[in-house]
């Protein structure tokens, strides 16, 4: 877990956010959407190349990307497919949990390094969707049993993933 920001860092971050006044509910303009479209195609595409394609300065692209990252709307990461790494298994866990224990379970599962995806659901079948990786069936079973022991969990159904046919997070940007 990263260290908490110093007072000076917190002030700088607040000034940055106030300068651009960008909240999650604000609408993105056409340039923001165009930049996002380029980054969704290739997260490593140079800002200079994006700027040329959009006929804006590289610095403009850099500033817009920084603003989107600071606001928490954009995160550029490398995705590694655990199933391509060799002896890893992926499992989707459908968890039914009592509402009073939901927040605590989420907090606990967020801390687990084997969890790659965690989402709350509105479903009769599950309250939480948990995707996790394990090196073998024994490790998978151990994690499922750990989840079943979380206070408030009434059911944890696991679905082993044998092959991923498509993995692509591309959100519509209006382009």
Helix amount, in percent? 25-40%
Summed up, the domain count is 2
Individual helix count: 6
Q: Provide the β-strand percentage band.
A: 15-25%
Largest sheet: 4 strands, antiparallel
CATH fold assignment of the largest domain: Alpha-Beta Plaits
| CATH class term of the largest domain | Alpha Beta
Radius of gyration: 20 Å
Keywords:
175 residues; four-stranded antiparallel beta sheet; alpha+beta; Arc Repressor Mutant, subunit A; single chain; Alpha-Beta Plaits
Written description of the protein model:
The chain has 175 residues and is an alpha+beta fold. The chain has 2 domains: 7-70, Arc Repressor Mutant, subunit A, CATH 1.10.10; 82-161, Alpha-Beta Plaits, CATH 3.30.70.920. 39% of the residues lie in helices and 18% in strands. The protein contains 6 helices and 4 strands; from the N terminus they run ααααβαββαβ. The protein has helices at residues 7-20, 30-41, 47-54, 58-70, 102-110, 137-148, and strands at residues 89-97, 115-120, 128-134, 153-161. A 4-stranded antiparallel sheet has the order 2-3-1-4. A hairpin with a 7-residue loop joins strand 2 (115-120) and strand 3. Helix 3 (47-54) crosses helix 4. Mean pLDDT is 83; it is low at 10-22.
Secondary structure elements and pairings:
Elements: H1 7-20, H2 30-41, H3 47-54, H4 58-70, E1 89-97, H5 102-110, E2 115-120, E3 128-134, H6 137-148, E4 153-161
Helix pairs in contact: 3-4
């Amino acid at each position: 877990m990263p260290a908490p920001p110093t007072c000076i860092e917190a002030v700088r971050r607040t000034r940055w956010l106030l300068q651009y006044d960008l909240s999650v509910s604000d609408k993105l303009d056409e340039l923001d959407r165009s930049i996002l479209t380029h980054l969704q195609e290739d997260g490593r595409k140079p800002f200079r190349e994006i700027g040329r394609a959009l006929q804006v300065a590289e610095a403009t692209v850099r500033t817009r990307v920084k603003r989107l990252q600071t606001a928490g709307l954009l995160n550029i990461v490398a995705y590694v497919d655990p199933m391509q790494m060799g002896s890893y298994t992926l499992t989707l866990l459908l968890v039914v949990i009592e509402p009073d224990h939901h927040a605590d379970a989420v907090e606990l599962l967020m801390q687990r390094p084997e969890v790659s995806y965690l989402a709350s659901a509105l479903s009769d079948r599950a309250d939480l969707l948990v995707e996790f990786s394990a090196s073998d069936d024994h490790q998978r079973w151990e994690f499922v049993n750990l989840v079943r022991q979380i206070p408030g969990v009434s059911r944890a159904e696991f679905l082993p993933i044998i092959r991923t046919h498509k993995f692509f997070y591309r959100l519509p940007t209006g382009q």
